[in-house]
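2 proteins. here.
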Amino acid sequence: MNTVDTIDARARGDFRAALAECYPRLWRYALVLTGNRTEAADLAQAACLRALEKSNLLLSDVPFDRWLFRLTHRVWLNELRSKAVRRGEGVVDVEDSGLAAETPGQEMTAYLRNVFSGILKLPEAQRSAVMLVYVEQCSYQEAADVLEVPIGTIMSRLASARTKLKETVAYEQGDSVW
């Protein structure tokens, strides 16, 4: 094995380690995109495979997780284009989603379940924006880059999502305000 092979092997190992570290967040993002545990696992695996295939395209100044989310979003869009995706099946309980606190009380669990259900009811574009900005803590610009839309579109999607979530959660909680 020559020096180039050693460097390539070490770089592949670092890439695989970064991929493994980011996988839970990737799966969670895939879950929000698909709304279904099985499809989320398939999407996350397809994204990992594509990431490994395209690892040479990762630029050093691009954060790995943002690149991976963008790649995942593209894989998902490709899947949407290639087949009719069934929606509304396999909704995940908030306890199984990885989004809830470690040991929430009954009230918090019920509240989070309502919020998560509300997020899953949003249109895909709004779900993606909510996930990237509020859960993954991407900046508006980073989310815009991942989704390949203008930053104003992200802001608009988030505003619409907040309005819908306030209405949904307030209605399900029996509250008049969120």
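next one coming up
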Amino acid sequence: MKKKNSKVPYTVGFGVLIVIILAIVLPFLLIHGKYNFGQFWNLFFDKIFKLSAFLSAFSYIVPKIPETLIVTGISAAFGLLFGLLLALIKINKIPVLNPLRALFVSFVRGTPIYVQLILTYTGIPLILQAINLNYGTTYNVNSISPLFFAALAFSLNEAAYSSETIRAAIESVDVGQIEAAKSLGMTNFQVFLRVTVKEAAVVATAPLGNALIGLLKGTSLAFAVSFVEMTAEAQIIGGSNFRMLETYVALALIYWAMCIVLEFLIRRFEKSLRIEMLNKNFLSSEIGSQEIAREI
């Protein structure tokens, strides 16, 4: 079998990069304008794209990374748990709950996340006001943290989308392995935790990882509920110094770097899961072979 040349993608990539650089440089070399190449770029980074504003934006946006990661982590965790619950309701076709699940998933998938954020931000205070009015309670609407509204909306949205991924992953587990686990005396709950969840995790890691990256980027809309994370901070900076392009280029680079790191971690986690399952299956087959040999 002929071995593929791994250098080809790198050659193509460098070729495209050289073409892009030439496309930028050649017009200044072939067409003489008011300024030469060096003078134009000095003027560009001083007047058009202010380099100082671009660099200073990082000092304001980077400290807001923890806020972005917090809302992403909370939303991913609760969204995954609620998504698992929705998936189990659909798999078992639980009466009453299953139609409600279908209605919830349809609504969340059929409405923009921005609208869901606004509904959460404006709806919950009105509900609390109604409770106060009817029961004489004194719930303070203004004491609710914007993080709660953002995390709740993103968690529900994540749950609706991840539920189908989790359901498909659970249903992909080999029935033979489940029956083998039951034959060893495991209860249904033990089989679910030790066999079904682990097998399904291998299948669901990649799509759920992509959903997590999408959630990270989606948190840029959290400003709708007055939660100040990276994007909200960029809006504040850009509005104060009127350098929106420089600020948002810095923001884009930060998001890009975070997504690259997150994608790397997801791939490593997926690889470790696959190796663990391969080792487990290998050991199981070895034990089975030894048992058969003893019987013979």
